[in-house]
Specification:
mainly beta, 1 helix, 5 strands, 5-stranded antiparallel sheet, 15% helix, elongated
Length: 102
């Protein structure tokens, strides 16, 4: 399946906290069909937080870049929780707290 997807890296960050490492990655991805002009979908994934990955969806590259920055600010307690078209699962409902960098 991965050979059918083209990944476009947007941003990668890591936070080190007393509970472990939190990784924030934003990628664009599209189908890798020959000769096809497929739309690129953008996602920000957060792993290492409450044993469950979280993600946000973005429509465009610029929105993904800004969204990645907002997610990073939210995780470090410097901004509100980001909003996108869809985010699963609810970090607030899972009791997630901002991450304090080590």
């Amino acid at each position: 399946m991965l050979d059918q997807i083209v990944l476009y890296p947007v941003a990668d960050d890591e936070l080190f906290a007393p509970g472990g490492r939190v990784v924030i990655r934003t990628y664009g991805f599209a189908k890798a069909a020959p000769g096809g002009d497929h739309p690129v979908a953008y996602r920000t994934w957060v792993t290492g937080m409450r044993d469950q990955p979280y993600y946000w969806r973005w429509s465009h590259y610029e929105e993904a870049r800004a969204g990645h920055r907002r997610v990073l600010e939210w995780l470090t307690g410097r901004g509100p929780e980001p909003v996108s078209a869809a985010r699963q699962p609810s970090a607030r409902a899972a009791g997630a707290a901002p991450v304090t960098p080590a």
